[in-house]
Design goal:
The protein has 8 helices and 14 strands. By secondary structure, the chain is of the alpha+beta class.
């Protein structure tokens, strides 16, 4: 198993408003009646930044615009986000690895301009551990049936919104039950995604992930991984997966922009055997 890298010394996080002005994170920067805070009425993106270079920025900006459109928000110009992010990265420091969050809310409850800002922070210690040691998971129903998301577009399936109370509740449940993460299922047992990651399995030289028509968030990191893996001779595809499929695979990973590839070491208390291809999967994610 890959040894855990030494986390960098903690650095103060950076907050930059969409107009490029730097704010003091120790002081109030958001109105109390901002609908992002009151109702989670907004969208965001999170991405890794390595030595000052944001990874896959074009794709994250496109997905942010798609999420905003699903909520009826006017997406700010991509150049405004780029400038704001550049200021935040420079302010934070361009050496090593950190991560950025681009946030857009509907703004004040009584009407007014939308709120947009960028946060840049060090990679959390829990993320370093997940990369190096993997994560134990529990499976949790999301309480939905398998149905095309187009039947209920108001549920915002596939949009990356600020409404994360369910996701964080799932993670708290997992930690209270001897695990670090969760894997969501439909009521019939179909695998969906993790609260903050996509699910990937390997079987031989084949990589599979849950079908996008289940209403899950399209993973940018996973799509990039598939491109790199296909070039390395892997077969990649989407499928309806069950927990039995996860257990039968040679390896299971949670894939995300900041955590990259965290190997699943247990599912519902049942250990998953070590995967001989783990290091190759990690390298493909980094190359993607």
């Amino acid at each position: 198993m890959t040894a855990a890298p030494e986390p960098p010394a903690p650095a103060p996080g950076t907050l930059v408003r969409l107009d490029g002005s730097v704010a003091d994170r120790a002081r109030p920067a958001l109105r109390a009646d901002d609908l992002g805070a009151l109702r989670g009425d907004g969208v965001f993106e999170a991405l890794s930044v390595l030595d000052g270079r944001p990874r896959h920025l074009d794709e994250h900006l496109a997905r942010l615009a798609d999420s905003a459109a699903a909520l009826g928000l006017a997406a700010p110009a991509a150049d405004a986000w780029r400038h704001c992010l550049a200021v935040a990265i420079e302010r934070h420091g361009a050496v090593g690895e950190c991560y950025a969050r681009l946030v857009l809310t509907r703004g004040p409850e009584g009407g007014g301009p939308q709120t947009g800002y960028v946060l840049v922070d060090p990679i959390p210690a829990s993320t370093w551990r997940a990369r190096a040691e993997g994560v134990r998971t529990v499976t949790l129903t999301r309480g939905v049936v398998t149905a095309p998301p187009a039947r209920a577009p108001w549920l915002l399936a596939g949009a990356k919104t600020l409404s994360y109370a369910v996701n964080t509740a799932a993670l708290r449940w997992a930690r209270a039950h001897d695990a670090e993460d969760a894997i969501f299922l439909t009521e019939d047992g179909t695998v969906l995604e993790a609260p903050t990651a996509a699910v990937l399995i390997a079987k031989g030289r084949r990589l599979l992930t849950p079908a996008l028509d289940l209403g899950i968030l399209p993973s940018i990191t996973l799509r990039r991984l598939f491109d790199a893996a296909a070039g390395a001779g892997w077969e990649c595809g989407f499928a309806r997966l069950s927990v039995a499929d996860l257990r039968a695979g040679d390896g299971v990973w949670l894939i995300s922009s900041v955590r990259l590839a965290a190997r699943v070491t247990a599912i519902d208390g049942v250990p998953c055997p070590p995967c001989a291809r783990h290091d190759e999967i990690v390298e493909l994610v980094r190359a993607g």
